[in-house]
Amino acid sequence: MSRRVVRQSKFRHVFGQPLKADQSYEDIRVSKVTWDSSFCAVNPKFLAIIVESGGGGAFLVVPLSKTGRVDKNYPLVAGHTGPVLDIDWCPHNDNIIASGSEDCTAMVWQIPDSTPLRPIMEPVVTLEGHSKRVGIITWHPTARNILLTAGSDNVIIIWNVGTGEHLITIDNHPDLIYNVSWNRNGSLFCTTCKDKKVRVVDPRKQEIVAEKLSPHEGIRPMRAIFTRDGSIFTTGFTRMSQRELGLWDPVNFDEPIALQEMDTSNGVLLPFYDPDTNIVYLCGKGDSSIRYFEITDEPPYVHYLSTFSSKEPQRGMGFMPKRGLDVSKCEIASLFNFGISIQVSLVFPVSMQSDLFQDDLYPDTAGPEPALEAQDWLEGKNADPLLVSLRDGYIPLKNRELKVVKKNILDSRPAPRRSMSTCDGNFAQHQVTLEKLLEEIHSLKVTVQSQEKRICDLENKLSKFTNGTA
């Protein structure tokens, strides 16, 4: 009698493959801040890493093509006054990145396609609303300009970065929030908290729709992410400090769909999920290995695929969107793994005999265009991501400027009541003074802009002389 020993899966032969040394990045001083974020973000154009810097917080942004040794004087994105804790690229604009910092602010930055000649110091918009450090930054998956931030004040704020205003404030978490993950259409998000609860939150109603106490019995930090079908995948620790993964149905949180113990390492497992293949990659801070699992509808539901091992412990990890993969080489994932001395880009190809496009490996994936405007989402509309085909590969779009139209807070305030004639006189005097101030401000702005243009012209001339092109 024969029996099937090996589970049939097209991802059985997925293997981690580090790129050559000349395709990696060296001499990047990854931040030493003790915060459980990935310290890295990547998209089809750029690689961003939170780095050590004096006099505040900064992160490095380099084009993907600029591999090899990174110059120590390479211009940084440096506008925060405290260490940067988290960064995230906008899914709808490859030149826009958001950052959160210990200085209690979040900032949104426009990154030029060309290499800057000096540090980028001015954000497009600064978001101020948290009373303590901002440790979590995540963009809405389908709505334009919607950004979520979470801070150590246990508050979640949802912003419209196109107007610079905060839309929703959620303060129903009693303790530190460990992570936040949107579902596929952005109608809900799940959180993990220091009070050992996983919560599913409806942000527009500002209410908790489901919660689970102690999905993992250990006291160490947990992580939770939504899968494509609406299940929740979690990582945490057992009571005996073993690392553990779980799969849950938020409609019925009582019993897990799957629960597996892994090892006794003490690094927090950060899950990176690919909704197109239903594969989750687990990277641990301080680990030298990456495990990956396939989530299916068949028991035991979370199937171990393989492990990639490296020589150095990893301090930061970045996960490339599907648009940035080389489909001609059957790459199904790309992870940027940052160690102590060298930064390695990993690809996970599938062994295939044919050079033709593999439709089953590359279903249509989330594209760069938003499915909703911010106001539509705020009014209650939902939409899945707009999909694009990878059959002919993906060419990143050119730089698209983020336009911020700040609303005047005075517009929403009622006009003061005036009942005395003397008030009219005082108001007229104040109006004249205000107009003079505005004229002076405008004049100074014109002067500053002309000086900045002159500086840029001189820097371009200097660059030409340096490169020998003048």
TrEMBL record:
Domain DUF1899 positions: 4-68
PROSITE patterns (alphabetical): WD_REPEATS_1 (PS00678), WD_REPEATS_2 (PS50082), WD_REPEATS_REGION (PS50294)
Ranges of the WD repeats in the UniProt entry: 77-119, 127-169
Name of a matching Pfam family: DUF1899
Keywords: Coiled coil, Repeat, WD repeat
Database matches in InterPro entries: Coronin (IPR015505), DUF1899 (IPR015048), WD40/YVTN_repeat-like_dom_sf (IPR015943), WD40_repeat_CS (IPR019775), WD40_repeat_dom_sf (IPR036322), WD40_rpt (IPR001680)
Gene3D superfamilies, alphabetized: YVTN repeat-like/Quinoprotein amine dehydrogenase
Entry keyword Ribonucleoprotein: no
Superkingdom to which the source organism belongs: Eukaryota
Protein name, UniProt field: Coronin
Source organism: Polypterus senegalus (Senegal bichir)
